[in-house]
Amino acid sequence: MSANRTCWQCAQSIGASLFCPHCKSLQPPPSGYYTLFGLDRKLNLNTNELQQRFYDLSRQLHPDRFMRKSEAERQYSLDASSILNDAYRALKDPVKRAQYVLSQEGFEIGEQRSKDVPPELLEEVFELNMALEEMRSGDDSARPQLESAQNNFTNTLNEVDRQLEAQFRTYDESSNREVLTRIRGTLNRRKYIQNLLDEVQDQLAVGAQ
Amino acid sequence: MNIDFGTTEKVIGIDLGTTNSLAAFLDLTGPKIIPGADGDKLVPSVVSISPSGEVVVGNAARELLITQPGRTVYSVKRLMGRGLDDIQEELKLFPFHLASGSESVLQLQIGDRTYTPPEISALILRQLKQNAEAYFGEPVSKAVITVPAYFNDAQRQATKDAGRIAGLEVLRLVNEPTAASLAYGLDKRENGTIAVYDLGGGTFDISILKLHDGIFEVLATNGDTHLGGDDIDNLLLRIALEDVQGEWGEDLAGDSEGVQRVRRAVIQAKERLSFVPFTDISLEYRGNKYQREIQRELFDKLIAPIVDRTLGPCRDCIKDAGVTPEQIDEVVMVGGSTRIPLVRTAVENLFRSKPHTELNPDEVVALGAAVQAAILSGDVADKLLLDVTPLSLGIETMGGVVSKLIHRNSTIPASATESFTTGVDGQRNVLIHVVQGERELVKDNRSLARFDLKDIDPMPAGLARIEVRFLIDANGILNVTARDLRTGKEHSIDVKPSYGLTDEQVEKMIQESFEKAEQDFQERQVREARVEADTILAAVEKARRHDAYFELSDDERSAMDRAINELLLVYHSEDHHLILNKNEQLNQVTMKLAENMMNTAVRGALKGTKI
Predict the structure, then answer these.
(1) pLDDT digits (tens, 9 = 90+) for B334-352
(2) Residues 6+ apart with CB under 8 A from B207
(3) CATH for B427
(4) What is the ipTM for the molecules in this complex?
């Protein structure tokens, strides 16, 4: 955020603060999630600290606090708290947080194309689809296979999450764009596995009824 | 709690319920219910309108439900923000008479006039406003009103409209379970995870909250806006009507008064069954008697399917909140229907802990609304509610599919921005269809409104760039703004709500009711001035027989007589200023008499004592 911002109300210099240090009025909020939270842009965040900051900022910015203030401040409060809530939703979840940082860095994070099967999963996915097909046609004998697939993919997902965490650390230390490219790849893979897992769980739930 | 009462106008909290409504406020000792003129804290949400247009609300209207069923409306909350298609079930069971033209906005026919549901609700709100004004002795114009957490945008908007029509500035709509948690948190607990199970007359809500040093953060909410005590009443009513028919050989279904009598009998039996193992459904009507014993066991069996319908939303809510039942420290019970033992058992089984029932389930929502009112007026600074939107918000895309923009259980205010462009060369309009709900296809969700981006400069397809911002405010109501990204200017937007009233319609109703409210306020002030006059005149009359009266000079006595006569002359006028003026004048001229009387009293009291 530029340091030479001036207060809309009293025209004095306000630096990066949310409130004017002179007349105390609320300023137009920054749109960057990390800026609003006053945090460095790190992929690994302490979620307890994040929550505490969220509560503190909510106390300061929520529209409830501006009921008797000017129209302008009420509008800023509405803007600020909606950005704050959006920001908290994104930052508290590691996957959404990474997606946010990627999009801020100019990476396209479109929908994962379902045809792009990660090569190492090719065989497993092929068999799984067969089993899913059997279940759908009412053949319950595929249940054990689906259950074991559920276990396998849950394990893979945990593995991917550990991988992601390591990549986050690497990025936080280096700020290397190549790491972000790798993270995007990991996120796509994760999404793919998550979708599969959801499908298996849905099918198991339907079959159980 | 830190309370700092400024000099600002009082803001009241209102629970606008399906069956009963209440108003409350916060004073230094905590939140309090404002009683009605009849001393009752609960104002039944029943409105009766006489042929001459006089309005009766509350207990008196509930009596008229029996004798004037055609002119009396109850459970109008079930119709708020709804379309004709939504209320087919209601029409079968409730004696609502819809006027023609209800296809666009529902209109209830009462005599030769029609009323929209917000107008009927406004009459209830106006009664509560008057009760508060009588209680405080000053005008009240600001309120916080509670709504079921699962209310959609149209239902919230309708409630806000009702407030405006009643002459109230609605500072905030608060979700009922959240309000209840505020009253509960004030009283019982500062930290932890709680669930609020709210089964009222017409709606069911479940909310799970995290309490953290004065922050009340809703994690998830779920519910059913078509589920409540009314459903139990209607079930019992149907059975009883059949039974009556068997006994009397007469079908009461077409006889509104008869139906209302049976309805009252089954409600009374239902309420008793919460405390006793068996009771009678009994009534007398037109010389016929009906009496039937009902055991709680049978009652439980009958209502079990209704109670079960609350459990699905509870499970979904627990899942969405990301907690396990064991992580929930307490379950708070809200709404009159939670007095039913079967409901308590079902909740206990699901959450695996005994639910809290020590707060009055009828009052806790209004009490919480009063706390929120005090938060908004700045009197309470250490509490903050962070609520969520109950339903996902999306827009229609190709092939009638929904693209979700804001997911359910997002903390509000919440926003999303989306860029729109034209698909054909020279296209001047883009129509955006906004829906609420969780389903994939537009037709399975609830249409909220259509927004028309008009007057786009003609240009080749795909060049226009209009950024639309969807913002759900702290009331849970959608606001939409649009900006032309090429010019950076605000882009005009035309809103066509799918249900409910347009702004112009609300304005007109406000105008009509404002005139009415002015008149009401005026009448009340006149009545109060007369009461004051009565008090003074009675006191003077008594004083005339007092010894002190004869100590006055002739002039003083005739000045008194003149003042009395002048007061009596204006007593029946409609100008309260005039009456108050003469009250004051009489007070002035009798001041000396009062002093003399006081002195005599002191002398009398001192007699016999040694100084």
Answers:
(1) 999 999 999 999 999 999 8
(2) B149, B175, B177, B178, B181, B195, B196, B198, B218, B220, B221, B222, B317
(3) 2.60.34.10
(4) 0.87
